[in-house]
Amino acid sequence: MEKKTKKGSVLVHVITPFILLSLCVGILLIAIIKPYDKLKVYINLAFMDDFKTNPESAGSGLVLRDNDIVEDYSGDTFDEGEFVRPKFGEMYAVLKCSAFDISVPVYWGSSSELFEHGACQSSGSVIIGDTGNTVISAHEDTYFSELYKLKKGDTVTLNTTYGEFKYKVTENISFNKKDGKYVSPSEESKLTLYTCKRNVLGSADERIGVICEPTEKKFYNKAGEEIK
To answer: Which residues span the domain enclosing 123?
Structure first.
């Protein structure tokens, strides 16, 4: 009887550390998952800057998808409606504002090739018109060359394949490319536009841009209505 007790005691001592280790690993994984999700989104946004100057991302077989964006829609519109989620490489919006003389095509996703055709929105930010932070970036010497002209109170309009969305500039921003403060996800709805700060001596680490708040939504289809 005494031998059985000793064997049971030894077995408990051997198994217990493994049980405790498993519990600790499980708790650690749970604690890591949520912060990692947030970090992954920020990394996705931060890589937009690398794509602007990384030649290896070009010529990768990317298929551009251009859409005819209606900028003077005359049909019925709705305050709430259906979104049309774009595919990577698809132009799904046109950006216009009071400081620009041109309409800027907006592509979903980011690559060096896409940045040659227009502004890019990382899939790590929310689709235009949805709740959260919509982050759009473009080259400082092409499509966002006049972004610095935007001031508080100016209007920005985004026409998409599913609706028209207007914003008002509320803040001019300047930040280092390693600072994720302005490009991170947010609970409040806003539009963040940014580009590199012009630097004649080479690629700049500083970014300039604007934060805009939504002022008007016009969906082309009601919520729950089939999109034509």
So the answer is: 53-219
| Residue 203 is assigned to a structural domain of this protein | yes
Pairing of strands 104-108, 119-121: parallel
User: Does the residue 41 lie in any domain?
Assistant: no
Residue 101 inside a domain? The answer is yes
| 13 labelled catalytic | no
Please give the tally of structural domains in the chain.
1
Instruction: Determine the 3-state secondary structure of 149 from DSSP.
Output: helix
Place of tokens 């005819």: 68
Exactly one of 97, 120, 196, 212 is catalytic; name it: 196
Told to judge if 196 belongs to the known catalytic residues of this protein, a careful annotator would answer yes
Please report whether residue 176 resides in a domain: yes
pLDDT of residue 59: 44
Q: How confident is the model at residue 139 (pLDDT cuts 50, 70, 90)?
A: very high
Residue whose tokens read 């209606």: 70
Give the CATH number for residue 92.
Answer: 2.40.260.10
Active-site residue among 13, 97, 117, 139? 139
pLDDT tens digits, one per residue of 151-210: 999 999 999 999 999 999 999 999 998 888 899 999 999 999 999 987 755 557 899 999
CB 190 within 8 A of CB 211: yes
